[in-house]
Design brief:
Protein name: DUF4043 domain-containing protein
Distance between the termini: 68 Å
Radius of gyration: 26 Å
Number of strands: 24
Low-confidence stretches: 1-13, 331-335, 386-394
Shape: globular
């Protein structure tokens, strides 16, 4: 008989063939509890995602459509044309933009040998469940992080896309330059759809010059220094001047997300000693999000950062001024800020790390300040479902936070090995907000991706002065 499941905590189970030592743990929910506890590690990027159900039977990808608002009307109607059935009005419509959400399957497994683990079989069983849970959540969080920064699935680059630098100085003026990262330059949004950049062209600033991009080509061997970056070449419709095409010059798309660096550094390689995270950088990120009217998350914007970058903030005189004399404040006592100036700081061990690009400085750290709607998570509705009539009822399948936890009874010849596995079927996408332009929001930026801002800086171990 076909099995079914509940979307949020579906169970397909029969535990009669599991060892007695394990049945109590299963019956009392210890197994699911340990797996779920593992799903709440020190992570966070997945928290920002809006979750959607990915319906059965529609293929591996689905195209989502967002509609825009209509520009405000500030011109009064002409009384002389207020006639006939249309009253002098001409119908107007709203525009649309699309993004694609693709799904894949991820998972892993571990074995429990009941004979070799006889002394502590129950505790080892629960320990495996906890470890699987930690692995599952860390995997999903890292996929979410990679999408936010790299944007593989939306096609227009993530929140690091469209911001790079020249890596090889031009010998003479020419149409092609080598850059560290071509993400954000490969595609544009045209008539609401994501198409190759050659279909329409993209305005790009190289050094101090403005050029029209016609193609982006990845290198055969990737040498990018950016996290998840793709090195390659950019080809323009006109020659790039040597002064602009000099190694280290900034290359920024007109529709790129905002990337902020201390002391107004133009590119990552310019970051120098002492360029730690500043309150001014955080406030600039907040101002950028507010300019685009990005909604907050429960009243605050989320700032994901690592602890060494957070320590840099504590060395900032502006931050210290806010808490001068407040030696009894929770922030200063615990060296941990939860919410400050409408920003919720979320320390995470998953923030992207990068080796030093400047020998006089140090490794590059990246914080991401985001608002609601920055990321969409698609979860496949068919996870944990089976319509195979002879499926064994001795398997245990539980859905925990949209992740399937599978415990299989011993099926080996000696009936000794219990398999404990997890899998998730889904994907992430970055919705764009191109249609929220200055006709709708006068202060809006030109970025495709408006709901996040990356802050690049150095980190500190607290022994260096700012």
């Amino acid at each position: 008989m076909a099995q079914s499941f509940s979307q949020h905590h579906g169970i397909i189970m029969s535990i009669t063939n599991f060892p007695v030592a394990l049945q109590a743990a299963i019956q009392q929910g210890f197994l699911a509890r340990e797996f779920e506890n593992g799903l709440h590690s020190r992570l966070g990027f997945r928290q920002i995602a809006d979750r959607e159900r990915f319906a059965i039977g529609i293929g591996e990808t689905v195209t989502k459509t967002r509609k825009s608002l209509k520009a405000p009307v500030t011109t009064p109607l002409n009384p002389s044309t207020n006639t006939n059935f249309d009253n002098g009005l001409t119908a107007t419509g709203w525009t649309v933009e699309q993004y694609t959400l693709a799904i894949n399957q991820y998972g892993d497994t571990t074995d429990l040998n009941m004979v070799t683990s006889l002394a502590g079989i129950a505790s080892q069983f629960l320990a495996n469940a906890h470890t699987n849970g930690v692995q599952a959540m860390q995997s999903l969080d890292r996929i979410a992080r990679n999408t936010l920064f790299g944007g593989a699935q939306n096609g227009v680059g993530g929140y690091l896309g469209g911001n790079t630098r020249v890596t090889t100085t031009l010998g003479s003026a020419g149409t092609t330059i080598a850059v560290d990262d071509i993400r954000g330059f490969q595609r544009i949004i045209y008539d609401g759809q994501v198409v190759p950049v050659g279909a329409k062209g993209m305005t790009v600033t190289v050094g101090s010059g403005v050029y029209t991009l016609s193609a982006a080509t990845a290198d055969a061997t990737n040498t990018s220094t950016a996290p998840g970056g793709i090195s390659g070449t950019l080809t323009f419709s006109s020659n790039v001047a040597v002064a602009d095409g000099t190694e280290g010059m900034a290359v920024v798309s007109a529709v790129a997300p905002s990337v902020i660096r201390p002391n107004n550094r133009l590119v990552t390689t310019d970051i120098a000693a002492g360029d730690f995270l500043k309150m001014a950088n955080v406030l600039a990120a907040v101002a950028n999000l507010r300019r685009n009217n990005v909604p907050t998350v429960d009243g605050c914007y989320n700032c994901y950062l690592d602890d060494l970058q957070m320590l840099g903030l504590y060395q900032d005189p502006e931050f210290q001024l806010l808490y001068r004399g407040q030696y009894g404040s929770e922030a200063m006592q615990s060296a941990r800020v939860t919410e400050l100036l409408n920003v919720r700081f979320i320390p995470t061990t998953e923030a992207p790390q990068q080796a030093a690009l400047n020998a006089a400085a140090g490794p590059i750290h990246r914080a991401l300040v985001v608002g609601a709607g920055a990321l969409v998570e698609g979860n496949f509705e068919g996870t944990a479902f089976s319509n195979v009539p002879d499926r064994r009822e001795d398997d245990l399948v539980e859905m925990i936070d949209d992740v399937a936890m599978v415990t299989r009874e011993p099926l080996d010849r000696l009936r000794q090995i219990v398999a404990q596995s997890w899998y998730w079927i889904g994907g992430y996408a970055l919705p764009t907000d191109l249609t929220a332009d200055t006709t709708i929001i006068p202060t809006a930026t030109n970025s495709y991706l408006k709901r996040g801002v990356v802050i690049e800086s150095l980190g500190t171990d607290g022994r260096a002065a700012s």
